[in-house]
Each structure stands twice: as C-alpha cells, then as structure tokens.
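# step 3/5: fold
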Amino acid sequence: MAISLLCLFLITLVSLIFVVKKIKHSKWDLPPSPPTFPVIGNLHQVGELPHRSFQRLAERTGHVMLLHFGFVPVTVISSREAAEEVLRTHDLKCCTRPKLVGSRLISRGFKDISFTPYGEEWRERRKFLVRELFCFKKVQYFGYIVEEECNLLVKKLTESAVGRPPVDLSKSLFWLAASILFRIAFGQSFHDNKFIDEDKIDELIFETETAQASFTCSDFFPIAGLGWLADWISGKHRWLNNVFFKLDALFQRVIDDHSDPGRWKDHKDIVDVMLDVMHKQGKDDSLRLTIDHIKGFLTVSKLVSHVCIKMESELI
C-alpha cells in the first residue's frame, strides 16, 4: 500500500512539473535550454568544475541559456556582449546575489554588504562603509601598518636569501595579508594575538569561503522541505553550523575584548570604529548598526581586503 502511494505521488509530481514547464514556456520567451531530467533538471550535467560544464553546454545550446538546478531556474551568460548587457546595461536588476543557505547563515541573515539585496538598506550600509572605513583619512591612518608588515616580510626574505633555506612564497604572502588584516581589523598582530590558533586559521578561512560559495539541496529543492531533509541526512547543515559557531566565537571574543573599558589602545582599529558608531547612533538614524552587522562585516574578508588594496595603491 505504501509503495503504491509513493509511486502515485511521484507520478503526480512529475506530471505537475511538466505542466508547469509547458505553461512557463508558452507565457515567456525564455532562452534555449538543454534537455532536462524530471525533478533534478540539469544537475546531472554539472561536474566538479562547473565553469567547464557550462562552457560545454554553451557550445551546444548558446551563450545565453536557461538551466534548471532542481526546482530553481538559472540563466547562464557566457559571451562578452551578454555579460555587458547584464553587468552594465541592466546592472540594477541583476546585481542582487542569490539567497543561498550558506551565505545567509555566515552573513548573519545578509547583514553584511556583499550579500545584502540591492535596495535602500544596501545603500545605507555602503554609505556607512565609505564614510567610516574607506575614506581617504582612514586609508592614510592605517597606512603605517602596511609599511611595517611589508618591511618585516622583506627582512625575513632577505635573511632567507643569505642562509638559502627553501621559502614557501604562497605561505609568506598569506601571513603578510593575515598580519595586515588582523592589525587593521582587530588591533593585534596576527602572530601575537590571543584570539586564534595560527595553525588553524587557514583552515577556518577555507571553510568560511567554502560555506559562502557552497550549494545545498535546500537551495535547489526548497519545496516541502525535501532539500532540508537531504542536507540533514548528508550532514551539510551540521557542517555549516560548525563553521558559523567557530566564526561567531572568534568575533565575539574580539568584540568583548574591544568593549572592555580598561583596554589600552594607541590606535583605533575597524572594530573600535564600528562599536563607536553603534554606541553613538540615535533612534532616528537610517542605519541601525548592531553586533550582528559588525560580525557580518568582519566575516566578509573583502571588506578588509578592499582597505588593504586602497592603502597599497596610495603607498605605491
């Protein structure tokens, strides 16, 4: 009896999908689409390197094509002309990023700047970042940190050249970027800080980037909780929550340390600036900055990377 009901449910579901697709294609002039399978759509045609898979599909289907990832339709652009149309001509309609489960969790419900949907709230956050963190005065204010850390790296490389031990440049440049970011954002040297374990920070950064860019079954199959159930069984939810709790514990320790009234500070870092704005803001301010906003800003490494890039350009 149970098997008969399950078969009946699957047949009804597949029939409904075909009917909906037929209605959609008759109502809108959609881009061409490669053949799809019921339920999964084109997911079976996407391999470990999605960009390579999209290139092969575009060669057969066209530079503007419609793919179906589960129940989610996705338009893939693969030509210069189409990309210009999307990124420049119709930028305001296409600039909002998809609301994925991973990015929603890591960004505290899109309380950062990178994943916030375009609108008034995004504009207010952008104004805040430009005014408080990306202005010319702040670039000059943090400039000495870049100089000191670059000089330290040059000194270490010079010493290595004398003794001629092997040098891992990728690791050296990673430590340089990490040292600059930690001093600007947290006010502490990366090697002397008391918040993290140096041996695990690269693992945490990799996990965070993977979580922000990863897809879950919930993203492709949001109907009736089917995707959520698959993510729960596969352990995807547990892994995402573990990454979130690691980041949250790190940022909370940083914020607690900066909130200590007895903390000695010779220069204000990014956390100091954001906490000052949060404490001084009024009830009528358009941007209501909270602790979650601060954690969201810190999570997205592009925020601090942008500061570093601007400072390096000023120094050069």
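# step 4/5: annotate
Confidence is low (pLDDT under 50) at residues 4-9, 306-316.
# step 5/5: archive (pending)
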